[in-house]
Amino acid sequence: MAGPQLSPAKAILLAVQLATKADIPTLQSLIAEHSKTLHRELVLRILLSHLPETVESSKYVSLLEDLVSGGITEDSKYPANAHSLAEMSEVEAQKKVRKLHLLHLKWPYAPDDDPADPFFELLDDKAGVNLLLSRTGKEETGNETKSVGRDLRGLIGPWMYGDSRWKRRKLHRNSEIRKQVAMPMDDSLFANERCVGWEEVFQWVTTQAAKSWKTAVEAVEQWDGPGDSDLGSYGDGIMWLDENDQQHLERRYARAAIASAYLISEESIEALNGADRILSRIITLMDQDRTPTLQAAAALLSPVFDLGDVLSEKNALHLRNDLLSDRNILTSPNETSLRLLHALLVSTYICMKTGHKLTIRRAGELALLQNEQEQGFTLSRLMMSIVNGPKEDDKYWIRVRNELLWLRSWGAEELSEGADATKGRGILGKLSQYLIETEILKTLLKNTRRYRLVFKQGEPFKPVSLRVHGDPISIIGKVLEQNPKSYAKINDFIEMGQNMVKAGLVARSVSGHTKPLDADQAREQESIAEKRVVSMCIDASLVEDDFETAYSYVVIRLRNIAGPAQARTPEPANNESGLFANVPAQAMDDWSWRAALQAGKYRRTTFTTKPSHLGNASGNPEIRHLEQRMECLAQALRLAPKATLPEIINVFRRCEEELETHVKQEAEQEAAWDAQGDDQAMPGGFAATPMRKNATAGASRAAEEAPLSLLDLSVASAARAQRSLAALSVFRGNGSGASNHNAPLTARESNESSRVATPDSAARNTMRKRDQLKNAAVGGLASGIGWLLNAPPVRDGEEDEDAHHGSP
Length: 808
Fold this sequence. Notes:
The protein is mostly helical. The chain has five domains: about 10-100, no CATH class; about 125-135 and about 145-265, no CATH class; about 265-450, no CATH class; about 465-565 and about 585-615 and about 620-665, Serine Threonine Protein Phosphatase 5, Tetratricopeptide repeat (Alpha Horseshoe), CATH 1.25.40; about 710-805, no CATH class. It is built from 33 helices and two strands. A two-stranded antiparallel ribbon has the order 1-2. α30 packs parallel to α33 (about 795-805).
């Protein structure tokens, strides 16, 4: 316990210590024990100066209530302990009290109805709104826009709807009216004066739309207006205003939202979708018919109904000034202004989707001013973007035509509005329909005979670029890069290159002017252009993983047109004597061998185009690809200069090594397949003994793999021919008479006996289907040229039968 003997100075110091520690219960006991020293004003100053701001208000609200009512009682559970001040003298305690510098209460016991509250009355509405919303939308947590609605409801609402503050505004308004009775004023001015605080909030929202449109969009989506306030546990959390005030604030809020949509200055699809979200939110709050999304509206192209007097040139001034003014017809919260805003949003979306960047405010100026020159410039920019579209997509061109015509009239031709139905009123309304149709047709016709080519972003190719370019043939390479699969039209590009030569674009003088060429020089330049174009097409096909096309260009095109890489031949030293003629400089083909080398270096991937047919090539794709690469490298060896031969030979050697490896693997796989197909693995057969089986297989495979000389091949062919002729004589004997009716049986018995007695019977038993076909072919060949091999003549049936019986 602090005890009654505690001096006033030490009691004050102890109260300061307890307030600093936020020990409210002990402080309450101390105040009850020393109520004369710690009176109400002193305690409030101590709390104001030393109580931490992080303490929750629920912990000290009860203390303040007891302090105001005078019912503070001492709690025996929390006694005040003054042991920390026991050793301090009274003089030292008084010195420390004088150095406390407690904050003063500006208005110690201000009544609730006092009109001069110093805390808020001296703070104007603009400063209050800016202070309360100074950090709104600027959090660093990644959810900056999620707190906008929370701050508008929880900070602005309670501050604006303070009981005395709202009442004082009404009193202030009445006093101003009494002072200016003689001056007639509009009711809207009175309403704006009465709601000057909310006007600052609306101004803040529109300012955010120009700076950070995401904050403005989230403010409109998360906040329903001045009626949406979070007062916490005070009352029911809902502020009930006068009907006139409520309607006025709702109209002002809707006007601020529409103005925010016009003020979004970012030229992107995302920002445009944000403006559409604002429009959808306002339509919902105003209970209007919902509009389709921008994507759906651009696909439907629904007609825009009558806009009345909104489409007027004088209203264009409202796009720049006084967007929140009640006289601004464009931001007025009604059905006509919302319909106009939606039409401008769809028009802007169509332009940006095509490639021409535009803002909502700029689209509004085109629609309101109806300046033919500005609209013509906009159409030109649109056509420049459209020309780069797909060339063979009919649906694309139909859609583009419908969209451009809708931008002109906003679908007026679909409405029954009399003679004015065909009058343009959109962002291209001043242009005639004939002009737009003509531009579309011209672009469509040009697009069918040209390729896409862009030097800089947003700047299409112009014909003058060919004349000023230092190497016009290199432009063909850019065309191949920007147009996929265009390398297949190699004849068109060769013709382009040769036309450049004929136009005199490749030969220039020192000053840069076109230099005429004679017939030989023109043919040489055309040949160079063809070689360069073929090399460019080979490189382009390799970039797009079409090796088959590159290979065909190398073995067909380059073989016919390419020449060896040659340098300028030096002039002889005795040129002045006249004994030697000047050797003309030879052109250097430095493109063909490089293209062939690049084709030879190409390796198959999963993205490589598969061949359409194999022809006589190997069925193994790796072996076939390596063989094609070696052909390309061989072509490069024929064309390349001597200095580059080692590099090409190294690549060729690596291809050979890979080819040998794959061929060896294929042979091993074939041998394994042959072993799997032997009679030993035939289903339904009798299994032989292991030793005999291995010996038979080894002998058969040894006989197959033994090399044959030409003499051995001739003897084998003669033997097969004899067997064929003998079999033929047997079949011929069947039809000779009744005396030979046993010949087939005798032959069959002879065959059966020979099948058992012949030493190589096992080899014949295991003969494969492929070997049978080969033997039949060789036998037929031997029978046809048997007279060259001294084959015996065909014997009669009897001699043939004796021969068969006499065989071992």
